[in-house]
Amino acid sequence: MTASENTEPAENNERGENNTANVRVPLHERRRPWWHWGRLAGSRLRLAVIIGVAGAVVGALLGGAGVAWRAGAGPFADDRACWGAFGEDDVAALFDGKRDIKTSEVPITTDRIGSQGPSGTCRLTSPRGRRITVQAHQLDAGFGGAGDRWADEFLSARLTPLGDGLLGMASDTRAWLAVPDGCIGRPSRLDVSGGPTVIDLETGWTVYDDDVDTKARDALARAVVKLVNHYMADEGCTGRIADPVGRMPEPPRFLVEKVEKKDGMCGVKGLRLPSAYQHEGRHRPLLTRGEGPVRTCDRGVLFDHPGLRLMTIEDPRLAVLYDRLSHDGAKEPVRTGAHGEQDGYGFIRDDMGLFQAECQTGQVTFLVRADDGEHPDDIRALLPRYVAAEADRVGCGPLRVTLPAEG
């Protein structure tokens, strides 16, 4: 089914890998395929890797797993892709029925002390240029997952919740799903990473409009469920997640300006759109549709990065991504409650306002974030009203945020 990426002598010669006239290449280097991480890395980095993780690499190799990219050949050969989760038909469904798809992967492994959680990568590549990257990893509680890039892309308003209480979402270019706590347990807030273990898929840059291809979205949603089911089976878990497509809401649509003026910014009553974002047609808002772990309103998205984001994370398993930031990322701390009582933690700065509330259901995150710090007054005006309105909506109110004095 999937074509392998075995290296051929001609392929190596094409890249000049076997030319030893000017550079002496050790024998073990010559035997490695050109895409091996050890050959792609620089010598200093390779030396650091060898010194730092030699024991882990040797142990993995002895176990037959290895850490290099591997194709469906040799001792790993079978007719399945992405750690055995996908058969030929599954891969074809992701590429409009095409079956000449190459696959390469790094097996899912966990560091020796388990502090970083499992991680692995699979890539499916079409000869026509399309590529799908699959990752298994534990989300980083340091800041929104991998420096907030993960949150920008995978908590985007273009994604719709998978429904039925699943911690996951999908669009026509992104999909993600957390492994259920019942299988691997919920991470402790004391963990180094602290976030849930997820498997996600991405197909490259997103053309940010509200014309989501429902067929492509459904294919990614089914694929990510299949991946998580396979992972759970490998972990010895007996439960299975059902096909989510039938219960997913319709994709979101841009909010009409007249409706937004009537109902409030991003559909939040009492919230007024700052004048800096009142540009006809330039910053049309897109709002998450359907009940799910997160409600996001994005405006002015460029290369998957929103110019202005208002986001409420209702699921405590996901809200943990901003827990550490709410405590130590502050320029000016935000307070709630009276007489020294505190309902949560947060801060305000020129480009962002964040409040992490302790609600009856657990942590809930309220975020207002701009892509620059050019309009600090807008952030100050939006955060208290947004927190108050959203807290009431999710049953966490009343919640009144007090901002520090300016200057």
Automatic annotation (TrEMBL):
The chain crosses the membrane at residues 47-69. Residues 1-10 have a biased composition (Polar residues). Residues 1-21 are annotated as: Disordered. It comes from the Bacteria. Keywords: Membrane, Transmembrane, Transmembrane helix. This is Uncharacterized protein. It comes from Streptomyces malaysiensis. The lineage of its organism: Bacteria, Bacillati, Actinomycetota, Actinomycetes, Kitasatosporales.
